[in-house]
Fold this protein.
Amino acid sequence: MTNGVTESENTTVARTRVRELIRSGEVESDGKLPTERELSVRFGVSRRAVRQALDVLEAEGIVWRKQGKGTFIGVEPDPNGHLAEKIAPDADPVSVMEARLAIEPELAALAARRATGEDVARLRALADRTSKTTDADAAELWDGSLHRLIARIAGNPILQTAFTLMNEVRSQQRWRQERDLARSADLVAEYDRQHQLIIAAIDDRDEAAARAAMRDHLLALTTNLERARARDRSE
């Protein structure tokens, strides 16, 4: 404890400040964060608190680390990322959703089989962040983190590689622009309710319910994207 503040509280401060740093865009062009030492000084907390905060953020898929290189925003690049670049021009958002429907329901079912109580708590925290943010880019960040964490919890390296490839395509500018068309206060509330059903099924270790809840969520998103695209074309 330092100045009446516990190490746990300092870790919470560090996590919050790193998230704010990421949302503000105050990072290097390659997405690299300042060093643990620099963050420690900047936030006024111990390096241990910074390290623990980064551990949690890495588990959530918000940051990734490379030995000797530092800490970076997002998930570690897919070694097959060049494939995503090849596929992206021919993959519109509907194609992405078709791929998600083929992969993510099974990832949710596997997550229900393998999730720990700590995993579920992290999923709930990410869902809460996703629903409360009013910034479209931040919402996409938190939503992506939630789905990436489900893929990690699933623990199947082959399916996770497929998910990573799909997610690389999803990160393209074309996807983000059309994704924004399918966002409104009502739809955000709908997506949050669906996320909560997925997480509840995972928490209950109900594989069938998790699979169905994820499929229902992705089908709703697909429908909303198609409606938004039709509306945009008619204007």
About this structure: The chain has a mean pLDDT of 83.
